[in-house]
Amino acid sequence: MKFSTIMTVFALVFAFASAGCRYDKAGKGAGSGSGEGEGMDISSSQEGSLSDMTEGKFEDLYTRCTDVDFAPVYFGFDSTVVPQGELGKIDAVAQHLTEKTDRVVVVEGNCDDRGSNEYNMSLGENRAIIIRNYLVQSGISADRIQTRSYGEEKPAVIGSGESVWSRNRRGEFAIYQK
To answer: What is the pLDDT of residue 32?
Structure first.
């Protein structure tokens, strides 16, 4: 990989990190709002998106798999901490990718509609990166994972109120076959 490409990726990661997005590593404190006890801090290893480091978007290179569908990972309000009860959903994806080595995943980060577009895009990307990091820690090669942020642009449910917002704060998995 060219040095200039690596420097560009580092610059993008730094830009996301310094964009003012609150990064609740402890799973507690203002804004985490998960109400589900402590989550797991999985943000420390290999932070950053590999989306820009591969030769192209998986969705442009490979075929979307329709034989498998994974449950979304839900987040607390303004949080990037994966609640303990949601880890099994990521484990299921890791197990699938371990068994099907010809498959790759795009982790899609989403938010509710509160906050600015810029903030929500950053928060969505950070949620996707957190899930990606967990997959890597589970033994999935980083080059098989890409991240996307949709911010508030692809809501699972339309409306307002906590019952709607809580379903829109999520990470989803799109599986592709090489």
So the answer is: 33
